[in-house]
## 1
Amino acid sequence: MRKYLIAGNWKMNKTVSEAVSFMKILKGAIANTASVEVLLFPTFTALYAVNNEIKGSDINIGAQDVFWGEKGAFTGEISPAMIKDTGCSYVLIGHSERRQYFGETSEMVNKKTKAVIAAGLKPMVCIGETFQDRENNSTFKIIEKQINESLVGLTAEQACSVVIAYEPVWAIGTGKIASPDQAQEVHVFVRKIYSQMYKDASEKIRILYGGSVNPDNISNLMANPDIDGVLVGGASLDTESFAKLIKHFNN
Ligand code: PEP
Protein backbone atom coordinates (compact mmCIF):
# COMPACT_ATOMS: atom_id res chain seq x y z
CA MET A 1 0.00 0.00 0.00
CA ARG A 2 1.44 3.37 -1.02
CA LYS A 3 0.96 6.10 1.57
CA TYR A 4 -0.29 9.41 0.20
CA LEU A 5 2.17 12.29 0.24
CA ILE A 6 1.42 16.00 0.14
CA ALA A 7 4.38 18.29 -0.42
CA GLY A 8 4.65 22.07 -0.51
CA ASN A 9 7.35 23.79 -2.57
CA TRP A 10 7.88 27.27 -1.19
CA LYS A 11 10.38 28.24 -3.91
CA MET A 12 12.17 31.55 -3.09
CA ASN A 13 9.62 32.70 -0.50
CA LYS A 14 9.54 33.36 3.26
CA THR A 15 12.18 34.68 5.64
CA VAL A 16 13.29 32.50 8.56
CA SER A 17 10.75 34.05 10.93
CA GLU A 18 7.94 33.75 8.38
CA ALA A 19 8.82 30.10 7.80
CA VAL A 20 8.89 29.35 11.53
CA SER A 21 5.53 31.03 12.19
CA PHE A 22 3.98 29.11 9.29
CA MET A 23 5.06 25.84 10.94
CA LYS A 24 3.80 26.98 14.34
CA ILE A 25 0.34 27.61 12.86
CA LEU A 26 0.32 24.50 10.67
CA LYS A 27 1.24 22.24 13.61
CA GLY A 28 -1.82 23.48 15.45
CA ALA A 29 -4.10 23.35 12.42
CA ILE A 30 -3.53 19.73 11.44
CA ALA A 31 -4.72 17.09 13.82
CA ASN A 32 -4.62 13.59 12.38
CA THR A 33 -2.24 13.01 9.49
CA ALA A 34 -2.16 9.20 9.75
CA SER A 35 -3.29 8.67 6.16
CA VAL A 36 -0.95 11.18 4.54
CA GLU A 37 2.69 12.17 4.84
CA VAL A 38 3.12 15.94 5.07
CA LEU A 39 6.26 17.53 3.65
CA LEU A 40 7.44 21.09 3.04
CA PHE A 41 10.39 22.39 1.05
CA PRO A 42 11.45 25.72 2.66
CA THR A 43 14.48 27.70 1.44
CA PHE A 44 17.93 26.54 2.58
CA THR A 45 18.26 29.45 4.99
CA ALA A 46 15.14 28.48 6.94
CA LEU A 47 15.74 24.71 7.22
CA TYR A 48 17.57 24.62 10.55
CA ALA A 49 15.14 26.90 12.37
CA VAL A 50 12.11 25.22 10.84
CA ASN A 51 13.38 21.83 11.91
CA ASN A 52 13.54 23.01 15.53
CA GLU A 53 9.95 24.21 15.27
CA ILE A 54 8.50 20.97 13.82
CA LYS A 55 10.18 18.59 16.27
CA GLY A 56 7.61 16.16 17.68
CA SER A 57 5.07 16.96 14.93
CA ASP A 58 4.10 14.95 11.84
CA ILE A 59 5.59 17.54 9.48
CA ASN A 60 8.65 16.58 7.41
CA ILE A 61 10.99 18.93 5.60
CA GLY A 62 13.17 18.76 2.51
CA ALA A 63 15.58 20.98 0.59
CA GLN A 64 14.73 22.47 -2.82
CA ASP A 65 18.06 21.54 -4.42
CA VAL A 66 21.44 19.93 -3.70
CA PHE A 67 24.91 19.53 -5.17
CA TRP A 68 26.23 16.01 -5.72
CA GLY A 69 29.75 16.58 -4.31
CA GLU A 70 30.62 15.67 -0.72
CA LYS A 71 32.67 18.78 0.13
CA GLY A 72 35.36 21.09 -1.22
CA ALA A 73 35.81 24.00 -3.58
CA PHE A 74 32.26 24.41 -4.89
CA THR A 75 31.38 27.95 -3.83
CA GLY A 76 27.71 28.44 -3.08
CA GLU A 77 26.78 24.77 -3.17
CA ILE A 78 25.24 22.59 -0.44
CA SER A 79 26.01 18.87 -0.04
CA PRO A 80 23.56 16.06 0.80
CA ALA A 81 25.23 15.59 4.23
CA MET A 82 24.74 19.30 5.03
CA ILE A 83 21.09 19.03 4.13
CA LYS A 84 20.68 15.95 6.28
CA ASP A 85 22.36 17.80 9.14
CA THR A 86 19.55 20.38 9.14
CA GLY A 87 16.94 17.67 9.78
CA CYS A 88 15.69 17.17 6.22
CA SER A 89 14.51 13.80 5.00
CA TYR A 90 13.83 14.71 1.34
CA VAL A 91 15.41 16.70 -1.49
CA LEU A 92 13.54 18.13 -4.46
CA ILE A 93 15.52 17.52 -7.64
CA GLY A 94 15.11 18.73 -11.22
CA HIS A 95 12.20 21.11 -10.72
CA SER A 96 11.30 22.65 -14.09
CA GLU A 97 12.34 26.10 -12.82
CA ARG A 98 15.83 24.72 -12.18
CA ARG A 99 15.88 23.10 -15.60
CA GLN A 100 14.60 26.29 -17.27
CA TYR A 101 16.51 29.06 -15.44
CA PHE A 102 19.64 27.28 -14.19
CA GLY A 103 20.42 24.88 -17.01
CA GLU A 104 19.83 21.74 -14.99
CA THR A 105 19.99 18.65 -17.20
CA SER A 106 18.70 15.12 -16.60
CA GLU A 107 22.34 14.02 -16.30
CA MET A 108 22.76 16.44 -13.38
CA VAL A 109 19.47 15.22 -11.91
CA ASN A 110 20.84 11.68 -12.05
CA LYS A 111 24.04 12.65 -10.19
CA LYS A 112 22.04 14.52 -7.56
CA THR A 113 19.61 11.62 -7.13
CA LYS A 114 22.41 9.12 -6.55
CA ALA A 115 24.21 11.42 -4.09
CA VAL A 116 21.02 12.05 -2.14
CA ILE A 117 20.22 8.35 -1.84
CA ALA A 118 23.81 7.60 -0.80
CA ALA A 119 23.43 10.13 2.03
CA GLY A 120 20.27 8.42 3.30
CA LEU A 121 17.86 11.07 2.02
CA LYS A 122 14.86 10.56 -0.27
CA PRO A 123 14.86 12.23 -3.69
CA MET A 124 11.72 13.74 -5.19
CA VAL A 125 12.49 13.89 -8.90
CA CYS A 126 10.45 16.26 -11.05
CA ILE A 127 9.55 15.50 -14.65
CA GLY A 128 7.08 17.07 -17.06
CA GLU A 129 6.46 18.24 -20.59
CA THR A 130 6.19 21.81 -21.87
CA PHE A 131 3.07 23.14 -23.60
CA GLN A 132 4.88 22.79 -26.92
CA ASP A 133 5.74 19.14 -26.19
CA ARG A 134 2.07 18.43 -25.52
CA GLU A 135 0.96 20.28 -28.66
CA ASN A 136 3.48 18.25 -30.69
CA ASN A 137 2.22 14.98 -29.20
CA SER A 138 5.66 14.38 -27.66
CA THR A 139 4.58 14.20 -24.02
CA PHE A 140 5.27 10.48 -23.62
CA LYS A 141 8.56 10.65 -25.51
CA ILE A 142 9.76 13.49 -23.24
CA ILE A 143 8.60 11.77 -20.05
CA GLU A 144 10.31 8.51 -21.05
CA LYS A 145 13.57 10.33 -21.84
CA GLN A 146 13.51 12.27 -18.57
CA ILE A 147 12.93 9.11 -16.52
CA ASN A 148 15.55 7.07 -18.35
CA GLU A 149 18.20 9.76 -18.06
CA SER A 150 17.38 10.93 -14.54
CA LEU A 151 17.15 7.51 -12.94
CA VAL A 152 19.61 5.36 -14.84
CA GLY A 153 21.97 3.21 -12.76
CA LEU A 154 19.97 2.87 -9.54
CA THR A 155 19.47 -0.51 -7.89
CA ALA A 156 15.85 -1.70 -7.64
CA GLU A 157 15.95 -0.95 -3.91
CA GLN A 158 17.22 2.59 -4.52
CA ALA A 159 14.61 3.08 -7.22
CA CYS A 160 11.88 2.36 -4.65
CA SER A 161 13.01 5.27 -2.47
CA VAL A 162 12.45 7.80 -5.27
CA VAL A 163 9.29 9.89 -5.36
CA ILE A 164 8.36 11.09 -8.84
CA ALA A 165 6.59 14.42 -9.22
CA TYR A 166 4.84 14.72 -12.57
CA GLU A 167 4.55 18.45 -13.17
CA PRO A 168 3.47 19.55 -16.65
CA VAL A 169 5.43 22.77 -17.13
CA TRP A 170 2.37 24.51 -18.63
CA ALA A 171 0.44 23.86 -15.41
CA ILE A 172 2.98 25.26 -12.94
CA GLY A 173 1.89 28.58 -11.49
CA THR A 174 -0.53 29.18 -14.37
CA GLY A 175 -3.86 28.21 -12.81
CA LYS A 176 -4.27 25.68 -15.66
CA ILE A 177 -4.39 22.29 -14.00
CA ALA A 178 -4.07 19.08 -16.03
CA SER A 179 -7.37 17.24 -16.25
CA PRO A 180 -7.64 14.18 -13.98
CA ASP A 181 -7.53 11.98 -17.11
CA GLN A 182 -4.43 13.71 -18.49
CA ALA A 183 -2.66 13.26 -15.15
CA GLN A 184 -3.74 9.64 -14.64
CA GLU A 185 -2.64 8.73 -18.18
CA VAL A 186 0.89 10.05 -17.58
CA HIS A 187 1.12 8.44 -14.13
CA VAL A 188 0.24 5.04 -15.62
CA PHE A 189 2.86 5.62 -18.31
CA VAL A 190 5.50 6.51 -15.67
CA ARG A 191 4.78 3.23 -13.87
CA LYS A 192 5.15 1.37 -17.16
CA ILE A 193 8.57 2.90 -17.88
CA TYR A 194 9.59 2.30 -14.29
CA SER A 195 8.60 -1.37 -14.51
CA GLN A 196 10.79 -1.77 -17.61
CA MET A 197 13.71 -0.33 -15.67
CA TYR A 198 13.08 -1.61 -12.16
CA LYS A 199 10.34 -4.27 -12.28
CA ASP A 200 8.49 -4.42 -8.91
CA ALA A 201 9.58 -0.92 -7.91
CA SER A 202 6.91 0.47 -10.24
CA GLU A 203 4.10 -0.55 -7.88
CA LYS A 204 5.95 0.74 -4.83
CA ILE A 205 7.00 4.21 -5.96
CA ARG A 206 4.82 7.18 -5.24
CA ILE A 207 3.98 9.43 -8.16
CA LEU A 208 2.69 12.89 -7.25
CA TYR A 209 0.95 15.37 -9.52
CA GLY A 210 2.02 19.03 -9.41
CA GLY A 211 0.73 22.12 -11.22
CA SER A 212 -1.89 24.59 -9.98
CA VAL A 213 -3.36 22.29 -7.33
CA ASN A 214 -5.61 24.09 -4.83
CA PRO A 215 -8.30 23.15 -2.27
CA ASP A 216 -11.02 23.44 -4.95
CA ASN A 217 -9.53 21.07 -7.49
CA ILE A 218 -7.74 18.45 -5.40
CA SER A 219 -10.71 16.06 -5.04
CA ASN A 220 -11.16 15.37 -8.76
CA LEU A 221 -7.49 14.79 -9.20
CA MET A 222 -7.10 12.46 -6.25
CA ALA A 223 -9.95 10.26 -7.44
CA ASN A 224 -7.40 8.57 -9.73
CA PRO A 225 -5.75 5.37 -8.50
CA ASP A 226 -2.23 6.15 -9.77
CA ILE A 227 -1.99 9.62 -8.24
CA ASP A 228 -0.33 9.15 -4.86
CA GLY A 229 -0.43 12.75 -3.74
CA VAL A 230 0.39 16.28 -4.82
CA LEU A 231 3.28 18.73 -5.03
CA VAL A 232 1.92 22.20 -4.41
CA GLY A 233 3.55 25.57 -5.06
CA GLY A 234 1.37 28.68 -4.62
CA ALA A 235 -1.28 27.06 -2.43
CA SER A 236 1.36 25.81 0.03
CA LEU A 237 2.41 29.33 1.03
CA ASP A 238 -0.72 30.00 3.03
CA THR A 239 -1.40 27.91 6.15
CA GLU A 240 -5.15 27.92 5.61
CA SER A 241 -5.06 26.60 2.05
CA PHE A 242 -2.30 24.08 2.81
CA ALA A 243 -4.21 22.80 5.86
CA LYS A 244 -7.32 22.44 3.66
CA LEU A 245 -5.33 20.40 1.15
CA ILE A 246 -4.06 18.12 3.93
CA LYS A 247 -7.59 17.76 5.25
CA HIS A 248 -8.66 16.32 1.90
CA PHE A 249 -6.64 13.18 2.70
CA ASN A 250 -8.11 12.79 6.18
CA ASN A 251 -11.75 12.89 5.13
C1 PEP B 1 5.52 23.79 -8.26
O1 PEP B 1 6.20 24.80 -8.40
O2 PEP B 1 6.05 22.70 -8.03
C2 PEP B 1 4.08 23.94 -8.41
C3 PEP B 1 3.35 22.86 -8.53
O3 PEP B 1 3.57 25.23 -8.39
P1 PEP B 1 2.00 25.67 -8.42
O4 PEP B 1 1.26 24.76 -7.48
O5 PEP B 1 2.02 27.08 -7.96
O6 PEP B 1 1.54 25.48 -9.82
## 2
Amino acid sequence: MNGWLSKFRRKYFFGEEVIKKNKQILTNMGTRVLVITGASSKRNGALNDVLEALHGKEVVVFNRIKENPDLSLVESVRQEFQNYNPDFILAIGGGSAMDCAKAIAVLLENQSLVVSDLFNPLRYSKAKPVVCVSTTSGSGSKVTPYSVLVVDGRKKGFAHEAVVPKVAFIDYRYSLTLDHDVTLSTGLDALSHAVESFLSLKSDPLTEQISLQALKLAKENLPRVLQSPNELEFRKNMAVASVMAGMVISHTGTTISHAMGNPLTTEKGLKHGVAASLSLPFCLELYESSKTETIKRIFGGDLLSYLKALGVRLNFTPTEVEIERWAEEMGKDFHLKNTPGRFDKEKIAEAYRKLFEHFTV
Ligand code: ZN
Protein backbone atom coordinates (compact mmCIF):
# COMPACT_ATOMS: atom_id res chain seq x y z
CA MET A 1 0.00 0.00 0.00
CA ASN A 2 1.47 3.35 -0.94
CA GLY A 3 1.78 6.35 1.37
CA TRP A 4 -1.19 8.15 -0.03
CA LEU A 5 -3.55 5.29 0.62
CA SER A 6 -2.45 4.67 4.16
CA LYS A 7 -3.09 8.33 4.88
CA PHE A 8 -6.52 8.46 3.30
CA ARG A 9 -8.12 5.14 3.97
CA ARG A 10 -11.84 4.65 3.47
CA LYS A 11 -12.82 7.94 2.04
CA TYR A 12 -16.09 8.62 0.34
CA PHE A 13 -17.35 11.45 -1.80
CA PHE A 14 -21.05 12.13 -2.00
CA GLY A 15 -22.77 14.50 -4.38
CA GLU A 16 -23.17 15.55 -7.97
CA GLU A 17 -20.14 15.25 -10.25
CA VAL A 18 -17.97 13.91 -7.44
CA ILE A 19 -15.75 11.97 -9.84
CA LYS A 20 -14.98 15.00 -11.95
CA LYS A 21 -14.40 17.18 -8.90
CA ASN A 22 -12.10 14.67 -7.22
CA LYS A 23 -10.39 13.02 -10.12
CA GLN A 24 -7.01 13.69 -8.53
CA ILE A 25 -7.90 11.08 -5.93
CA LEU A 26 -8.21 8.48 -8.67
CA THR A 27 -5.16 9.52 -10.62
CA ASN A 28 -3.04 9.39 -7.46
CA MET A 29 -3.98 5.78 -6.85
CA GLY A 30 -1.87 4.29 -9.60
CA THR A 31 -1.45 3.89 -13.32
CA ARG A 32 -2.95 0.47 -14.06
CA VAL A 33 -6.64 0.08 -13.42
CA LEU A 34 -9.06 -2.82 -13.79
CA VAL A 35 -12.66 -1.60 -14.10
CA ILE A 36 -15.37 -4.12 -13.19
CA THR A 37 -18.88 -3.27 -14.30
CA GLY A 38 -22.10 -4.36 -16.04
CA ALA A 39 -23.85 -3.00 -19.08
CA SER A 40 -25.77 -0.20 -17.33
CA SER A 41 -22.75 1.96 -16.45
CA LYS A 42 -22.59 3.01 -20.08
CA ARG A 43 -26.20 4.18 -20.01
CA ASN A 44 -26.05 6.14 -16.77
CA GLY A 45 -22.84 7.99 -17.63
CA ALA A 46 -20.72 6.57 -14.80
CA LEU A 47 -18.32 4.66 -17.06
CA ASN A 48 -17.75 7.71 -19.17
CA ASP A 49 -17.00 9.89 -16.13
CA VAL A 50 -14.55 7.28 -14.85
CA LEU A 51 -12.76 6.94 -18.19
CA GLU A 52 -12.49 10.70 -18.49
CA ALA A 53 -11.03 10.98 -15.00
CA LEU A 54 -8.54 8.19 -15.76
CA HIS A 55 -7.52 9.67 -19.10
CA GLY A 56 -3.87 8.84 -19.78
CA LYS A 57 -3.85 5.81 -17.47
CA GLU A 58 -3.73 2.19 -18.51
CA VAL A 59 -7.32 1.03 -18.10
CA VAL A 60 -8.95 -2.29 -18.93
CA VAL A 61 -12.69 -2.75 -18.59
CA PHE A 62 -14.57 -5.94 -17.81
CA ASN A 63 -18.21 -5.10 -18.48
CA ARG A 64 -20.02 -8.43 -18.23
CA ILE A 65 -21.12 -8.43 -14.59
CA LYS A 66 -24.64 -9.81 -14.14
CA GLU A 67 -27.01 -9.75 -11.20
CA ASN A 68 -26.09 -12.25 -8.46
CA PRO A 69 -22.56 -13.09 -9.69
CA ASP A 70 -21.44 -16.66 -9.04
CA LEU A 71 -18.04 -18.16 -8.40
CA SER A 72 -17.56 -19.23 -12.00
CA LEU A 73 -17.89 -15.60 -13.13
CA VAL A 74 -15.36 -14.57 -10.49
CA GLU A 75 -13.03 -17.32 -11.63
CA SER A 76 -13.33 -16.34 -15.30
CA VAL A 77 -12.51 -12.68 -14.52
CA ARG A 78 -9.55 -13.83 -12.50
CA GLN A 79 -8.27 -16.02 -15.37
CA GLU A 80 -8.69 -13.22 -17.85
CA PHE A 81 -6.69 -10.72 -15.76
CA GLN A 82 -4.29 -13.11 -14.01
CA ASN A 83 -1.30 -11.41 -15.57
CA TYR A 84 -2.61 -7.89 -15.49
CA ASN A 85 -1.28 -6.41 -12.32
CA PRO A 86 -3.59 -3.48 -11.57
CA ASP A 87 -2.72 -0.88 -8.94
CA PHE A 88 -6.36 -0.86 -7.99
CA ILE A 89 -9.74 -2.27 -8.97
CA LEU A 90 -12.58 0.09 -9.69
CA ALA A 91 -16.14 -1.22 -9.50
CA ILE A 92 -18.96 0.69 -11.17
CA GLY A 93 -22.50 -0.44 -10.40
CA GLY A 94 -24.59 -1.83 -7.61
CA GLY A 95 -23.89 -4.64 -5.18
CA SER A 96 -23.18 -7.22 -7.88
CA ALA A 97 -20.30 -5.31 -9.49
CA MET A 98 -18.87 -4.20 -6.16
CA ASP A 99 -19.09 -7.63 -4.53
CA CYS A 100 -17.47 -9.23 -7.55
CA ALA A 101 -14.70 -6.59 -7.59
CA LYS A 102 -13.94 -7.33 -3.92
CA ALA A 103 -13.51 -11.02 -4.69
CA ILE A 104 -11.28 -10.26 -7.70
CA ALA A 105 -9.24 -7.88 -5.53
CA VAL A 106 -8.43 -10.73 -3.14
CA LEU A 107 -7.66 -13.26 -5.87
CA LEU A 108 -5.38 -11.00 -7.92
CA GLU A 109 -3.38 -10.09 -4.83
CA ASN A 110 -3.13 -13.70 -3.60
CA GLN A 111 -2.43 -15.80 -6.66
CA SER A 112 -2.08 -19.06 -4.76
CA LEU A 113 -5.67 -18.97 -3.46
CA VAL A 114 -8.45 -20.96 -5.05
CA VAL A 115 -11.85 -19.23 -5.31
CA SER A 116 -13.37 -21.18 -2.43
CA ASP A 117 -10.64 -19.75 -0.14
CA LEU A 118 -12.45 -16.40 -0.35
CA PHE A 119 -14.81 -17.69 2.33
CA ASN A 120 -11.95 -18.49 4.67
CA PRO A 121 -10.73 -14.98 5.49
CA LEU A 122 -7.93 -16.30 7.70
CA ARG A 123 -6.20 -17.52 4.54
CA TYR A 124 -5.42 -14.02 3.31
CA SER A 125 -4.61 -10.62 4.75
CA LYS A 126 -4.35 -8.36 1.74
CA ALA A 127 -6.26 -7.44 -1.40
CA LYS A 128 -5.78 -5.01 -4.28
CA PRO A 129 -7.26 -1.64 -3.26
CA VAL A 130 -10.93 -1.39 -4.23
CA VAL A 131 -12.60 1.81 -5.38
CA CYS A 132 -16.39 1.92 -5.80
CA VAL A 133 -18.51 4.11 -8.02
CA SER A 134 -22.02 3.46 -6.87
CA THR A 135 -24.92 3.66 -9.33
CA THR A 136 -27.78 2.25 -7.23
CA SER A 137 -29.08 2.93 -3.71
CA GLY A 138 -29.33 -0.50 -2.17
CA SER A 139 -26.68 -2.83 -0.85
CA GLY A 140 -24.37 -0.23 0.65
CA SER A 141 -21.49 -2.45 -0.51
CA LYS A 142 -19.45 0.69 -1.25
CA VAL A 143 -18.94 1.20 2.48
CA THR A 144 -18.93 -2.37 3.80
CA PRO A 145 -16.40 -5.22 4.14
CA TYR A 146 -18.99 -7.66 2.67
CA SER A 147 -19.11 -9.51 -0.61
CA VAL A 148 -22.00 -11.84 -1.41
CA LEU A 149 -21.62 -14.35 -4.23
CA VAL A 150 -23.58 -17.35 -5.46
CA VAL A 151 -21.95 -20.67 -4.60
CA ASP A 152 -23.55 -23.97 -5.58
CA GLY A 153 -26.87 -22.24 -6.12
CA ARG A 154 -26.80 -20.51 -2.74
CA LYS A 155 -25.84 -17.01 -1.63
CA LYS A 156 -22.67 -17.01 0.39
CA GLY A 157 -20.85 -14.03 1.78
CA PHE A 158 -17.46 -13.19 3.12
CA ALA A 159 -16.29 -10.22 5.15
CA HIS A 160 -12.74 -8.90 5.21
CA GLU A 161 -11.11 -5.65 6.27
CA ALA A 162 -8.91 -5.73 3.18
CA VAL A 163 -11.86 -5.33 0.80
CA VAL A 164 -13.47 -2.30 2.45
CA PRO A 165 -13.39 0.18 -0.44
CA LYS A 166 -10.55 2.68 -0.06
CA VAL A 167 -12.66 5.32 -1.77
CA ALA A 168 -16.33 5.39 -2.74
CA PHE A 169 -17.90 7.86 -5.13
CA ILE A 170 -21.64 8.28 -4.69
CA ASP A 171 -23.22 10.45 -7.36
CA TYR A 172 -26.95 9.80 -7.15
CA ARG A 173 -27.53 11.19 -10.66
CA TYR A 174 -26.42 7.77 -11.92
CA SER A 175 -29.49 6.24 -10.29
CA LEU A 176 -31.86 8.35 -12.43
CA THR A 177 -31.77 5.73 -15.20
CA LEU A 178 -32.69 2.79 -12.95
CA ASP A 179 -35.94 1.18 -13.99
CA HIS A 180 -38.91 0.70 -11.68
CA ASP A 181 -38.05 -2.86 -10.60
CA VAL A 182 -34.43 -2.09 -9.75
CA THR A 183 -35.42 1.09 -7.93
CA LEU A 184 -37.95 -0.87 -5.89
CA SER A 185 -35.66 -3.77 -5.12
CA THR A 186 -32.58 -1.71 -4.21
CA GLY A 187 -34.73 0.64 -2.12
CA LEU A 188 -36.23 -2.28 -0.22
CA ASP A 189 -32.74 -3.63 0.37
CA ALA A 190 -31.65 -0.36 1.99
CA LEU A 191 -34.89 -0.21 3.99
CA SER A 192 -34.46 -3.79 5.24
CA HIS A 193 -30.86 -3.12 6.19
CA ALA A 194 -32.01 -0.16 8.27
CA VAL A 195 -34.73 -2.15 10.08
CA GLU A 196 -32.51 -5.14 10.72
CA SER A 197 -29.45 -3.21 11.87
CA PHE A 198 -31.73 -1.44 14.36
CA LEU A 199 -32.96 -4.76 15.73
CA SER A 200 -29.67 -6.67 15.49
CA LEU A 201 -28.18 -8.05 18.68
CA LYS A 202 -24.96 -6.34 17.64
CA SER A 203 -26.54 -2.87 17.56
CA ASP A 204 -25.60 -0.17 20.05
CA PRO A 205 -27.07 3.26 20.86
CA LEU A 206 -24.99 4.92 18.15
CA THR A 207 -25.83 2.48 15.35
CA GLU A 208 -29.49 2.56 16.46
CA GLN A 209 -29.74 6.27 15.77
CA ILE A 210 -28.13 5.94 12.35
CA SER A 211 -30.42 2.99 11.51
CA LEU A 212 -33.51 4.97 12.48
CA GLN A 213 -32.50 7.96 10.42
CA ALA A 214 -31.77 5.71 7.42
CA LEU A 215 -35.10 3.96 7.91
CA LYS A 216 -37.12 7.17 8.06
CA LEU A 217 -35.45 8.48 4.91
CA ALA A 218 -35.96 5.22 3.01
CA LYS A 219 -39.54 4.81 4.20
CA GLU A 220 -40.51 8.36 3.17
CA ASN A 221 -38.63 8.47 -0.11
CA LEU A 222 -39.14 5.02 -1.60
CA PRO A 223 -42.81 5.56 -2.53
CA ARG A 224 -41.93 9.03 -3.83
CA VAL A 225 -39.06 7.88 -6.03
CA LEU A 226 -41.21 5.11 -7.50
CA GLN A 227 -43.88 7.67 -8.29
CA SER A 228 -41.46 10.32 -9.62
CA PRO A 229 -38.32 8.51 -10.79
CA ASN A 230 -36.81 11.63 -12.35
CA GLU A 231 -36.93 13.68 -9.17
CA LEU A 232 -33.31 14.07 -8.14
CA GLU A 233 -34.16 15.02 -4.55
CA PHE A 234 -35.79 11.62 -3.93
CA ARG A 235 -32.89 9.80 -5.61
CA LYS A 236 -30.50 11.71 -3.35
CA ASN A 237 -32.41 10.80 -0.20
CA MET A 238 -32.45 7.11 -1.17
CA ALA A 239 -28.69 7.28 -1.75
CA VAL A 240 -28.16 8.81 1.70
CA ALA A 241 -30.35 6.09 3.25
CA SER A 242 -28.44 3.31 1.51
CA VAL A 243 -25.03 4.63 2.57
CA MET A 244 -26.14 5.13 6.18
CA ALA A 245 -27.69 1.65 6.27
CA GLY A 246 -24.54 0.20 4.70
CA MET A 247 -22.42 1.83 7.37
CA VAL A 248 -24.48 0.37 10.18
CA ILE A 249 -24.73 -3.16 8.81
CA SER A 250 -20.92 -3.14 8.69
CA HIS A 251 -21.20 -3.13 12.50
CA THR A 252 -24.39 -5.03 13.15
CA GLY A 253 -24.88 -7.44 10.24
CA THR A 254 -28.39 -8.30 9.08
CA THR A 255 -30.90 -10.73 10.62
CA ILE A 256 -32.74 -13.91 9.70
CA SER A 257 -35.40 -12.12 7.65
CA HIS A 258 -32.68 -11.06 5.18
CA ALA A 259 -31.31 -14.58 4.93
CA MET A 260 -34.80 -15.99 4.35
CA GLY A 261 -34.85 -14.13 1.04
CA ASN A 262 -31.76 -15.90 -0.27
CA PRO A 263 -33.41 -19.14 -1.51
CA LEU A 264 -36.14 -17.03 -3.11
CA THR A 265 -33.43 -15.27 -5.12
CA THR A 266 -31.36 -18.29 -6.08
CA GLU A 267 -34.25 -20.71 -6.69
CA LYS A 268 -37.10 -18.44 -7.77
CA GLY A 269 -35.21 -15.55 -9.35
CA LEU A 270 -36.54 -12.80 -7.09
CA LYS A 271 -34.42 -9.67 -6.85
CA HIS A 272 -32.41 -9.50 -3.63
CA GLY A 273 -34.05 -6.46 -2.06
CA VAL A 274 -37.60 -7.68 -2.67
CA ALA A 275 -36.73 -11.17 -1.43
CA ALA A 276 -35.02 -9.79 1.66
CA SER A 277 -37.98 -7.61 2.67
CA LEU A 278 -40.82 -10.13 2.24
CA SER A 279 -40.56 -11.90 5.57
CA LEU A 280 -39.92 -8.73 7.54
CA PRO A 281 -43.57 -7.99 8.55
CA PHE A 282 -43.94 -11.55 9.88
CA CYS A 283 -40.53 -11.73 11.52
CA LEU A 284 -41.35 -8.47 13.33
CA GLU A 285 -43.98 -10.49 15.24
CA LEU A 286 -41.42 -13.16 16.09
CA TYR A 287 -38.37 -11.09 17.04
CA GLU A 288 -38.09 -10.98 20.81
CA SER A 289 -37.20 -7.35 21.29
CA SER A 290 -39.06 -4.35 22.66
CA LYS A 291 -37.51 -2.39 19.80
CA THR A 292 -39.95 -3.93 17.31
CA GLU A 293 -42.53 -1.44 18.66
CA THR A 294 -40.40 1.45 17.39
CA ILE A 295 -40.32 -0.08 13.90
CA LYS A 296 -44.04 -0.75 13.89
CA ARG A 297 -44.74 2.84 14.94
CA ILE A 298 -42.68 4.18 12.03
CA PHE A 299 -44.89 2.19 9.64
CA GLY A 300 -48.09 3.23 11.37
CA GLY A 301 -48.37 -0.29 12.74
CA ASP A 302 -48.57 -1.89 9.32
CA LEU A 303 -45.40 -2.72 7.42
CA LEU A 304 -47.30 -5.32 5.38
CA SER A 305 -49.63 -2.69 3.88
CA TYR A 306 -46.67 -0.40 3.25
CA LEU A 307 -44.95 -3.10 1.17
CA LYS A 308 -48.14 -4.02 -0.67
CA ALA A 309 -48.77 -0.37 -1.52
CA LEU A 310 -45.32 -0.26 -3.13
CA GLY A 311 -46.45 -3.07 -5.43
CA VAL A 312 -44.58 -5.94 -3.82
CA ARG A 313 -46.24 -9.12 -5.16
CA LEU A 314 -45.34 -12.74 -5.83
CA ASN A 315 -46.63 -14.85 -8.67
CA PHE A 316 -45.82 -18.27 -7.31
CA THR A 317 -46.59 -20.50 -4.35
CA PRO A 318 -43.85 -22.88 -3.33
CA THR A 319 -44.54 -26.47 -2.35
CA GLU A 320 -44.63 -27.49 1.29
CA VAL A 321 -41.48 -29.53 0.62
CA GLU A 322 -39.65 -26.40 -0.52
CA ILE A 323 -40.77 -24.45 2.53
CA GLU A 324 -39.62 -27.22 4.85
CA ARG A 325 -36.25 -27.40 3.10
CA TRP A 326 -35.69 -23.63 3.27
CA ALA A 327 -36.77 -23.50 6.91
CA GLU A 328 -34.40 -26.32 7.77
CA GLU A 329 -31.54 -24.44 6.13
CA MET A 330 -32.44 -21.13 7.80
CA GLY A 331 -32.68 -22.81 11.19
CA LYS A 332 -28.88 -23.17 11.02
CA ASP A 333 -28.08 -19.89 9.30
CA PHE A 334 -25.37 -17.64 10.74
CA HIS A 335 -27.71 -14.62 10.66
CA LEU A 336 -29.38 -16.12 13.74
CA LYS A 337 -26.40 -14.86 15.74
CA ASN A 338 -27.57 -11.28 15.11
CA THR A 339 -31.27 -12.06 15.45
CA PRO A 340 -33.17 -11.27 18.67
CA GLY A 341 -35.23 -14.24 19.85
CA ARG A 342 -35.13 -17.96 19.28
CA PHE A 343 -35.90 -18.92 15.71
CA ASP A 344 -36.25 -22.62 15.11
CA LYS A 345 -37.25 -24.43 11.96
CA GLU A 346 -40.96 -24.34 12.87
CA LYS A 347 -41.04 -20.59 13.50
CA ILE A 348 -39.24 -19.90 10.25
CA ALA A 349 -41.52 -22.20 8.26
CA GLU A 350 -44.51 -20.38 9.76
CA ALA A 351 -43.10 -17.01 8.64
CA TYR A 352 -42.55 -18.41 5.13
CA ARG A 353 -46.14 -19.69 4.94
CA LYS A 354 -47.56 -16.34 6.04
CA LEU A 355 -45.41 -14.50 3.55
CA PHE A 356 -46.74 -16.53 0.62
CA GLU A 357 -50.27 -16.31 1.92
CA HIS A 358 -50.10 -12.51 1.90
CA PHE A 359 -47.92 -11.70 -1.09
CA THR A 360 -48.82 -14.32 -3.68
CA VAL A 361 -51.54 -13.14 -6.04
ZN1 ZN B 1 -29.16 -6.83 1.42
